[in-house]
Amino acid sequence: MTDYVQRSGPGRVGQVKEITSLANPIIKDIKALTNKKDREESGTFMAEGLKLVIDALELGWTIRTLIYAKAAKGKPLVEQVAARTVAHGGLVLEVSEKVLSSVTRRDNPQMVVGVFEQRWKSLAEIVPGAGETLVALDRVRDPGNLGTIIRTADAAGASAVLLIGDCTDPFSLETVRATMGSVFAVPVVRASAEDFLAWQKRSGAQVVATHLAGAVDYRTVDYRKKPTVLLMGNEQSGLPESLAGAADRTVRIPQQGRADSLNLAIATAVMLFEARRHLLALDGTE
Ligand code: SAM
Predict the structure, then answer these.
(1) Whole-angstrom Cα distance, residue 27 to residue 30?
(2) So what's the pLDDT on residue 15?
(3) Whether residue 6 has pLDDT greater than 60
(4) How far is the CA of 138 from the centre of ligand 1 (A)?
(5) Residue 245 pLDDT class (50, 70, 90 cuts)
(6) Which domains can be identified in the chain, with CATH numbers?
(7) How far apart are CA 83 and CA 188, in angstroms?
(8) Could you tell me the pTM of the whole model?
(9) Ligand 1 in contact with 172 (CB < 6 A)?
């Protein structure tokens, strides 16, 4: 049986490959993107959903492959995205739902999936200016937490998320899902703790570390006077002394009740909306 056929002609996007077999080598390569090693080697990742793919293209991300379900064929927005993919030299695949399910490891997959080139910023490119807030995460482990933090950073108007040390991959399927598209809007940087500490000294930003032992109430810090980096600790062990001790302030979010601590993503959200309270308005203006 033929794995795929190439179709073209009036009303059709040229260069569409139709694939129904799970054994197709192109599908095998895309499926492999669920592994970090394969994502790193190829420098690509998967994003699910038509809206996400459109947003990513609008923001100038490079699409390598567009995959859509047969049932989505002919839908104007899908055709437009397919045409843009081909125009940028990408590949368009029309696949069975079985193939989409297997690629995304979901029973009810989205109709559209894009494979994009990863984008990282380097620390050297991060020069915080007035009114900017950044989030720095020490060894964040949980993909859902990281995705939620990237989404929240986007919503609060933060400029970047810095990943310090060995962090979970922002381009994993689970993290990208949890970002709800914000992975395309918020620059992500990875750095060792040493490089972060060196950058911190020359950045001109105040670093506000969050710690369960912090003596300062997070609501008493002046977040207006300088750009601010909110430094958040690992889910299990919190911030090490090497990072917390080098911060300008070490703050705590007061708690009641029996919970030892807040979830990392929740604590980051509380901090972000406090640090940017003076900049956020209901009509979206700053
Ligand atoms: N067992 C860890 C510890 O002892 O630090 C708990 C870590 S907590 C789940 C993850 C991170 O969320 C912390 O390192 C801190 O950055 C932040 N966090 C959670 N609750 C906080 C609070 N009440 N005040 C300040 N930061 C908090």
Answers:
(1) 5
(2) 72
(3) no
(4) 11
(5) very high
(6) 6-117 (3.30.1330.30), 123-279 (3.40.1280.10)
(7) 29
(8) 0.94
(9) no
